[in-house]
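Before we proceed, please read the two lines closing this message. Tell me what the token row says about the fold.
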Amino acid sequence: MSGSSTQSFNMARPMIFGGRIKEDPIAWLESFETAMSLNNWTQWTNTKNYIKASFWDNALLWYKAQVLNLTDWDVFKTAFKQEYCTQEHMEAW
């Protein structure tokens, strides 16, 4: 797709995250931020689609319930950490 101005998974793919208790949400955030940087994902509209594509199971259900409140990356990141960086998750790691 040379010459295309659309953003895509062209260099790095983030980890897939399901929101299960033994998964590491910080590792997912770091992998997603790396993919954002390497792939030059700067438009929130597209980034939301990439987040959705990297979620499954409980995380995807959570995301679909939250999507209207997620207005940019910082808002998403705060909400994600509040949901998945809980004491229960930390103890499970």
Observations:
- Residues 43-92 form one domain.
- Confidence is low (pLDDT under 50) at residues 1-5.
